[in-house]
Write a structure and sequence with these properties.
The protein is an alpha+beta fold. About 50% of the residues lie in helices and about 25% in strands. A hairpin with a 2-residue loop joins strand 2 and strand 3.
C-alpha cells in the first residue's frame, strides 16, 4: 500500500512542479516585457544625443571611443585617470569608414533564414572519359 501512495504523491508532486514552473515562466515573461519597455524608453529618449560609433580596447583599462555628440564626431580616450577628448573627427570620413551595425534581432533573423534555407545541390561532376 505504501508503494501505491508514494507513486500518487510523486505524480502530484510532478504536476505541482509543472504548474509552478509554468506560472514562474509567465510571470518572468511579463516582468521582462514591462521592464524591457521601461528601459527601452529610457534608452530611446537620449539616443539622439549620443551615439558610440566605435570602441577599440587598448589595454584592460584603456580604450578609444569614436562618439557622435550633438552633430560632432569626437575621438575619446579612457584610462584610469578619466575621460579625455583627443580630437574632433570629420563626420563624413567616419561615416564612410563605419561598419553598419546589426541589431541582435537582425542577426537572429539572418541565422534563422540561413538555417531554414534548403541546402545547395551538390555540383555534378563531368562524366569520366570526357
Amino acid at each position: 500500500m505504501t508503494g501505491n501512495g508514494a507513486a500518487a504523491s510523486y505524480g502530484d508532486l510532478l504536476i505541482t512542479s509543472i504548474v509552478v514552473l509554468a506560472i514562474v515562466c509567465v510571470v518572468a515573461f511579463v516582468v521582462v516585457k514591462v521592464v524591457g519597455k521601461f528601459l527601452a524608453t529610457g534608452r530611446v529618449r537620449g539616443a539622439h544625443l549620443l551615439d558610440v560609433i566605435a570602441r577599440v580596447p587598448l589595454e584592460p583599462r584603456r580604450s578609444l571611443f569614436v562618439v557622435e555628440v550633438a552633430g560632432k564626431t569626437l575621438l575619446l580616450g579612457t584610462s584610469e585617470m578619466g575621460l579625455s577628448v583627443l580630437s574632433e573627427l570629420d563626420p563624413a570620413e567616419v561615416r564612410a569608414r563605419a561598419v553598419p551595425r546589426q541589431s541582435f534581432a537582425e542577426l537572429v533573423r539572418a541565422a534563422w533564414t540561413k538555417r531554414k534555407a534548403p541546402p545547395a545541390a551538390p555540383a555534378e561532376s563531368p562524366p569520366e572519359g570526357s
